[in-house]
Amino acid sequence: MKSRLFVFPLFLITSLVGTGENPHAVFVVGTTHYRPGKTIPALAKQIEENFGWKTTVIQPEGNPEKNEKGISGLEALKEADVAIFYLRFLTLPEEQLAHIESYLKSGKPVVGFRTSTHAFFYPEDHVLAKWNDGFGKDAMGSKYFIHGKGSTTVEPVQKQRGHEIFTGYNQAAPRKAAGTLYLSDLPENATVLMTGTGKFKRTGTVTNSFGTHELKAEMTDDVVWAWENRWGGRVFGTTLGHPGTFADANFVRLFINGIHWAAGKPVPPASAKIEPIGAEQGPKKNSQR
Fold this sequence. Notes:
Layout: E1 3-7, E2 11-16, E3 24-30, H1 36-51, E4 54-60, E5 82-87, H2 94-105, E6 110-113, H3 131-140, E7 149-156, E8 175-177, E9 191-199, E10 204-208, E11 211-215, E12 218-228, E13 234-238, H4 243-246, H5 249-262
Parallel strand pairs: 3-4, 3-5, 5-6, 6-13
Antiparallel strand pairs: 1-2, 2-4, 7-8, 7-9, 9-12, 10-11, 12-13
């Protein structure tokens, strides 16, 4: 299959065309943090080449967190069967956010990676400030609170080890996932698939701009989940997504399975070809949100 690359002044849209009967997945890269500009297009390429999907990657030039013109091309969400978001601290113009809001309210599936828990960062008095916590909480499953230090040790929840999203995933032992542990607060009706354990430098009562938290030197929290959001959309959410995690084929399989599940499609068999994505370790400082 051939890929078509459309170049516009402010963004790139890569459209990888599968068969007409297969789902159309639209990937939105809305940060340079943790280098999703490298990992997400590679993930889309595997889904297109190995499973025949049509994929569109919306990827702005430069850092969208610092670009007041935002992310062009979001109208592609109108044609999506499933949307995959990797966003962070955006202040999109109202007409651009309207495309995301319209997609969410349609009840279509959502996949959210790591920093999408804090996808937006509008001023408190802005008409769109509700999305600062609202995207993480209402669309993905949890807003952002605080994170630890170092890597995270993850393992499947015992009673969910038979979940189809784990098809082909090696559950023999806990795995080390690159990137710090994010604390989360999922709805009661979310299905927690994996938990992660990480360390924290500060302990006791700690206050940041996201609230006040009681921290211990080592903590465990939910890092991968399945859910139905407030608009009825199937959600595969995860606070994983460091580039070092994509370098582990087991996690790539988990992500691809989750995207299939969210779209209501059978997950690939355990024999399906899944490849690690790069070996870059991303930011040297894990302390950044």
